[in-house]
Amino acid sequence: MTPESLSRILAAHARWLARRTEGARADFTRADLSGVVLAAANLKSAKLSGAQLARAVLAGADLTECDLFAADLTGAVLANAILVRADLRGALLAGADLRGADLRGADLRGGTLLLGKMTKMAAGKDSDAAGGAKAELPSGREAGADLEAALLNDAICSGARMNGCNLAGASLAGANLSGAVIKRANLAGADLTGANLSGTDLTDAIIDGAKLQNADLRGAKLAGVDLAKADRSEPPRPGPNAISTIALRVALHEHQEWVRSNGKTGRRADLSGLTLDGANLNNSDLSGAILRGTKLARGRLRGTILALADLSGASLAAADLSKANLDGANLADADLSRAILRGASMAPIELKDADGKPTGRLQPVDLVRADLSGADLTGARLKQAILTLAILRGAVLVNAVLDNVVFEGANLDGAVLPGRRS
Question: Which superfamily does CATH assign the domain made up of 238-422 to?
Answer without folding.
Answer: E3 ubiquitin-protein ligase SopA (2.160.20.80)
